[in-house]
Amino acid sequence: MKSLLSISRAPWAIVMAACFLQAGDIDVEKIIDIEGQVDEQAAVLEYLDSLMDSPLNVNDASVQQLCTIPWISPTLAVRLVHHRYRHGPFDNLEDIKKVSGFSHVYDKISPFLTVGKRRISLPFHAQGRHCLFWQVEDSRAFQQQLYSGSRFKIVNRLRCSITDNVHVGAVGEKDAGERSWDDFRAGYVMIELPFIAARVIAGSFSASFGQGLVFWGSCKMSKGSDPVTPAKQRSRGLYPYLSAAENDGFCGVGISARLGMVEMHVFSSHTHKDARIDDGVVMALTSSGLHRTAGEIATYDRLEEFVCGASIQVGTRQCGRIGCSWQGSRYASRFPPHDGIHQFDFSGDHNTVAGIHYDLATGSWNVFGEAAQSQSGGRAYVAGLWYDLGEIEVAGLFRHYDRHFHNFYAVGFAERDGTRNEKGVYFGLRYHLDDHTTLSFFLDQYFFAWPYTSCPMPSSGVELLGSIERRFSDILSVAIRFRAENKEKGVSELDEYGNAAPRIQRPHRSNVRLQLTIDPTKSIRLRSRIEFSSFADNQSLSRTPRQLGALISQDVRWRPGRIWSLQIRCSIFDVPSYEHRFYQYENDLPGVMGLKMLNGRGKRSCLLLSCWLSQHLRTHLKYANTWYDDKETIGSGNDIVYSPCENHFSFQFEWHF
Fold first, then answer.
1. Which helix (H) or strand (E) holds 5?
2. Largest Cα span, the chain
């Protein structure tokens, strides 16, 4: 810890501050408090951003519409609709706190709700976001000109509404090192047909039904400080896709229609995926979306894919839905059969998946789940329960995914990606002791019945989290969190005779966080945090001793008026190994996921300045600096930087009219 104290004397520590992490008025860090899985959580952020653009009117929203907002359980949605029916419409948004259970989630959901009559839409409405990202230091690839393009990353997004019934969107992206400014591009046209209760999407779109075993987009909440909400997926049907994740969406035509209590979706897609193909055989799928070197460019859109899908579900007035989904996919190249630990991987040039799902609510109970089977005969099951009494919420989930269940578009609740070769039980509890104190807890026990790449034999693990948050006044709140995980992993170690042998390690990793939030005025918010992590593995031959990592950070948000705001963060960290790593969501451009992993010993600071140039124009500028005291280089391979310091700039220009 002596080294950690010495770091604090660095000149940059003059301003020990950072932003209260949010996009708009959302406390994003409370919503997305996870480790890794940046792409998935970026999709969650984009989804929340779209909800803010089109908030639901609590005076006419249905139960199913309310349930599309995270943290609103079917029980809460039914209570709100019943209250509205008995007592009439709400005069202002804070009146929903009168409904049992809403006072506990009001701060999270208020940005996505509104009251009063719907605004009269203009004949034409458009909005755009233009982002530019760059790193000051040149990596090895740029110094030796190994990348084909410039070091700037550029993202452009555009959305237009022509009346209430015609919507258009487009996105273009260029990663650092890529040559074309629109290396990835996607767009859509969506037409609402209210006279027949139907909707047509042409272009890029995504699909999500049930609990994600047949179809699911990239938007999935993962295990974090919220122990209940991530257990249940929120089905959205067919919806436009403008994410910068290049290999997740569909491209074609989709139709959604409603006839009474029956909801139907059908679509057809023809896309190209990045892949390494030799002699018509798919050797590997690449999901990075990077096309910088000759090898990466050679994988660009090599795999031709055709997908057809359909879903039909029958609903009731009490938020009950039962449905079935089907998917058929065909590929222009063939996936080869495998042997060894990969013998159950997908092979062939076509696949089908079918499943049934349900979501039923009665009183304080909500049961949900899905069962699916792929062409190989592999099956996947998810069964969940959500019990909501207002003061206490309980979520339970069982999952079982066969090792030969194949579906590239499945995103079920899981510890590992792929939605296969896993079974487990999840339990989450949230208890509101009073209006100011909340206890949270979750326990996830999982098992992998078949070896996988990083573990040469069957393995298991358990993860738990416990936290308490107390708001002492309108000014002061304190949170304490403990998180621990035992996850077996395979390693190759030398025995006493010098022979390499595969072994299972059972390391223990834990994390303790103390957080203090102070709101001295309406324009200033301070957040201080100290966090410790420990890691030990006493069952391996090397017998790694227990070590301790530490992180101290200070956040400040200053919003003196409606014209501009300043958000700054500074952190000091001392992390002895990768296993002690810390993840921090930090202030970033609206709609951008800023998740930084800290490993080593050093300090990091970032600043975000936002300014309204006019009623229709807004700009954001972010600067981030990381300095390592124990490294001479940062990164590895082509991306290695021959410096202990890295500096990043981000700029975004927004407009709407």
1. helix 2-7
2. 80
Nearest to 337 by CA among 299, 378, 377, 283: 283
Percent of the chain whose pLDDT exceeds 90? 48
What's the predicted TM-score (pTM) here? 0.86
**Closest CA relative to residue 364, chosen from 392, 397, 396, 384:** 392
The candidate with the shortest Cα–Cα distance to 84, out of 51, 55, 120, 57, is 57
Distance CA(269)–CA(202), nearest Å, equals: 10
Q: CA angle at residue 64 from 60 to 65, to 5 degrees? A: 50
Q: Are 236 and 210 contacting, i.e. CB atoms less than 8 angstroms apart?
A: no
Neighbouring-strand partners of residue 225: none
Q: Which residues of 3-35 are buried (b: 16+ CB within 10 A; e: fewer)?
A: ebeebeeeeeeeebbbbbbbbeebbbbbbbbbe
Half-sphere exposure of 538 (CA within 13 A, CB side): 4
**Residue 515's pLDDT band (cuts 50, 70, 90):** very high
> pLDDT tens-digit profile of 170-192?
999 999 999 888 889 999 999 99
Q: For residue 624, give the amino acid letter.
A: A
- C-alpha distances in angstroms, 218 versus 21, 328, 331, 597? 22, 19, 21, 21
Q: What is the pLDDT of residues 281-290, one digit of tens each?
A: 999 888 888 8
The alpha carbon of residue 179 and the mean position of all alpha carbons in its chain are separated, in whole angstroms, by 28
Single-letter amino acid code for the residue at 606 = C
Q: pLDDT-based confidence at 119, cuts 50/70/90?
A: very low
The tokens of 313 are what? 């579900």
pLDDT digits over 64-82, tens only?
788 878 778 888 888 888 8
Q: How far is CA 225 from the centre of its chain?
A: 14
Q: Helices 74-87 and 102-109: crossing angle, nearest 10°?
A: 100
